[in-house]
Amino acid sequence: MRLSETLRIVWINLMQNKFKVLLTSLGIIVGAVTIVMVIAIGRGGEAEIAGQFKGLSAETIYVNPDYNRAFDSGLNTDQIPKLSVDDMKQMLSENSYLNDITMRINYYKDVFMNGQKDSMQVTGVLENYEQVHNLPVSEGTNITEEHVEYENRVAVIGDELAQRYFKGPEDAVGKTIKIGEQQYTIIGVLERKGDGMQGVNPDDTIFIPLTTGQRYFKDADAIPQIVAMANSVKDVAAAINQLHGTLDYILDDGSIYKLEDAGSRIDAAMESARTMNVLLMSVAAIVFIVGGIGIMNVLFVSVKERTREIGILKALGSSKKDIMSQFLLESVIISLIGGIAGVALSYACMPLMVYTDVPVLPTLDGKLIALLFAVITGTLFGFYPAYKASRLKPIDALNYE
Predict the structure, then answer these.
(1) Under DSSP, is residue 4 helix (H, G, I), strand (E, B) or coil?
(2) 3-state DSSP call for residue 216?
(3) N or C: which end of the chain has fewer CB within 10 A?
């Protein structure tokens, strides 16, 4: 039997059983939608992580208090030994693997900005924070060594704050804001960055000179954090080892502080995203298996219903291969129809994800993978019923009641 004849018979059978085809393909439709959505969620998660860490360099090393160890040692937050700028300079001078180092202190203060009051994060920084954290200004100037030395009341704000409280960066520069009880002049607005400072979002943060914050803010819980830059990624481990040695010298117990490199954080976040992707893909695979079982059941029923038809085809000269191809093509076409319908339905489902706050990133390969899964499912689960149909003996099939 020619392929065109086989396809014509398959098409006639499908058109005569439209409702059955629809019900049979429901599992494949759901599976295809699930695959597309799962891949979109996975890619969206990876893109969000990449966006959060885009301001980080893999050479970045964070020196932060280990609060768990401090509490185990019986220390309260205000009893944790604080590192000074001199300690930071000693770390740099004693470490041949470091390229630069800086310090910052985070505060939460009531801020009056353009007539509005809100609680915001205020971060005291040194003049080199721009280089270490890769935070250039889009408008105005950044904090300088002179600002730090003379404890000037100047501020650099994130782009989100400039957009929210002013007409934009140009409008914000030169304006006066009130942090706590003091007035500060905005001298610059940062480029939009996203999370680039280990949990600090520069877009929503106010930056002031470190010395200014230490003079006017007397928060006992505000602990200085040190951020260092290794010469290269391969020097990170050696730099961390030398930093441990310096901390042990400066403090009675250097282990009160923990050292963490940005590369490890990025890898850990990406690994978590990949693990979640695998779990979601497993769910999608289960949905496809259920859909495939549905196809197999329907094809078995179809073989029973069309036993006499199979007998007639064999009596007219159709081979086992022809019969097998006919039923296998039915299975594949049903799966392909379900896959196409599922991909089409995913276009309607994707906009709804906006209401779930789950990041999604639709991709072409997600849709192609869904179609591929659909075809593979139809082929695998349609093979055995097709094989059984091809093995029927003509005389038995013709006499079947």
Answers:
(1) helix
(2) helix
(3) C
Closest alpha carbon to 104 in 220, 210, 198, 212 = 210
Roughly how many angstroms between the first and final C-alpha of the chain, as a whole number?
A: 26
Specify burial of residue 79 (Cβ count, 10 A radius: 0-12, 13-18, 19+): exposed
- 3 state DSSP class of 113: strand
Closest CA to 349 of 102, 12, 41: 41
Taking only the tens of pLDDT, the chain with its 401 residues reads: 566 666 676 676 666 667 777 777 777 888 888 888 888 887 887 777 666 555 556 688 999 998 888 888 888 887 889 999 999 999 999 999 999 999 999 999 999 999 999 999 999 999 999 998 888 999 999 999 999 999 999 999 999 999 999 999 999 999 999 999 999 999 999 998 865 556 678 999 999 999 999 999 987 678 899 999 999 878 988 999 999 999 999 987 788 999 988 766 666 666 777 777 777 778 777 877 877 787 777 777 776 666 676 677 767 667 777 777 777 887 788 888 888 998 999 888 888 877 777 778 888 888 888 888 888 888 888 787 777 777 777 665 555 55
How far apart CA 275 and CA 183 sit, in angstroms, is 48
311 residue type, one letter: G
Token digits of residue 159 = 């782009």
Helical packing angle, 18-52 and 3-16, nearest 10°: 100
Count CB-CB contacts under 10 A for residue 78: 11
**Contacting residues for 378 by C-beta, under 8 A, at least 6 apart:** 28, 292, 295, 331, 332, 333, 334, 335, 336
Query: Strands 257-261, 182-190: parallel, antiparallel or unpaired by DSSP?
Result: unpaired
Question: Rounded distance, CA 260 to CA 97, Å?
Answer: 15
